[in-house]
Every structure is written in structure tokens, then in C-alpha cells.
Design goal:
The chain is mainly α and about 200 residues long. It contains 11 helices and no strands. Helix 10 crosses helix 11. The N terminus is likely disordered.
């Protein structure tokens, strides 16, 4: 049986140990053995954090992804007086947010309003959205901010890629993704509001 008190962090864990500092420095120089030790020291904490937020199977995959990202970004790591695991948990938090945004992004095809209605909602509001007609969707589009209308027009009516839309709009690809996400969310909310 495992001694639970042995796995609990002590007050000393709140500070970077000299051993951890040496391992970080070595891993930054490309020492895979040092990174392996950092992994072994922090994997359980990262997994626990992710498990509490994403479930067991997702947490397994996401833990691996956190450490892959950490390895890839290690050259840019800057010690700020906090344990290495704090940086890893920040990566984990950002990964959760990133996956949540990707899952929330709704795709629209320009073909028919019927397809648009099907793609706008979640399972909870799907039946209500099926009753939206093309007129309601047009009205919802008209209510959007001009920047949102333009990004939707470029992405879904003109079928431009994110890169092409960013070039046309003169902004970053990430900005196009954010505008698209927000525009679709506003469009969905506006369309649902028309039903009320």
C-alpha cells in the first residue's frame, strides 16, 4: 500500500530545488535524460490536473501532449522563481482551453440554410434551430458586427482558408480564427434569440 503522506507536496516543494534547477538547465540544452527526470517528477501532478478537468482517457493523451509541448518550448522557458510544474500546469491549462475552443467552433457550409441550421447548434438546441429559416439566418447575419460578417463571408461564402482570409483582412491567422469563433457564437445566439 502506498503511503499517501509521501505523495503530498511539502512546503519545500513550493520552491525550485537546486536539483530541479540543474535538470531544467540540462534539459534546456537538449539532455533527454534530464527531461525524463522532470517528466517523472511532474507527470502525476499534470495528469491529476487534467483528469479532474477532462476525464481519464483525455487526460492520458493530454498529459503526453503537455510534455511534448514543454519539450518543444523548453528553449524559451524562463525560470521565474516558481516550480517547473507551474509552467507545465500553465501549458495544461492552455491545452484545455485550446481544445475547448476547437470543440466549440462550428463550421458553416455555404450551400443551404438547412445545412447551416444543422451545424449551428448543440444537441440541446438542435431541435429549436431546425425551425430557423433562411430569413432568420439572414437577419442574424445582418445583426453581426461588420468585422464578423466579413470574416464569415470570406471563410464560408468565398471559401477562403484562414491564411487567405488573414491576408485579405490584413490581420493574423489567429485573429481570423478568433473572429470566426466569436462571429459564429454571436450568430448562434442571435438566431436562438429570434426563436424566443
Amino acid at each position: 500500500m502506498r503511503d499517501e503522506s509521501a505523495s503530498r507536496p511539502s512546503r519545500d516543494d513550493d520552491f525550485v530545488s537546486s536539483d530541479e534547477g540543474v535538470l531544467i538547465a540540462a534539459a534546456t540544452r537538449g539532455d533527454t535524460g534530464a527531461f525524463r527526470e522532470l517528466y517523472q517528477a511532474n507527470a502525476e501532478t499534470v495528469f491529476g490536473y487534467l483528469h479532474a478537468r477532462a476525464g481519464f482517457h483525455e487526460a492520458e493523451d493530454m498529459t503526453a501532449e503537455v510534455f511534448c509541448r514543454a519539450w518543444g518550448q523548453l528553449a524559451g522557458y524562463q525560470w521565474r522563481g516558481v516550480p517547473f510544474r507551474a509552467w507545465l500546469l500553465t501549458i495544461a491549462k492552455n491545452l484545455i482551453r485550446s481544445r475547448a475552443r476547437r470543440a466549440a467552433v462550428l463550421t458553416i457550409t455555404p450551400s443551404a440554410s438547412g445545412e447551416l441550421r444543422e451545424q449551428l447548434g448543440t444537441a440541446a438546441d438542435e431541435r429549436a434551430l431546425r425551425s430557423i429559416d433562411a430569413v432568420a439566418i439572414r437577419r442574424a447575419l445582418e445583426d453581426l458586427k461588420p468585422t464578423y460578417r466579413s470574416v464569415l463571408r470570406l471563410r464560408f461564402l468565398e471559401e477562403l482558408t484562414v491564411k487567405e482570409a488573414s491576408e485579405r483582412l490584413g490581420c493574423s491567422e489567429e485573429n481570423v480564427r478568433i473572429r470566426t469563433f466569436r462571429a459564429l457564437a454571436d450568430l448562434r445566439d442571435s438566431a436562438l434569440g429570434a426563436l424566443a
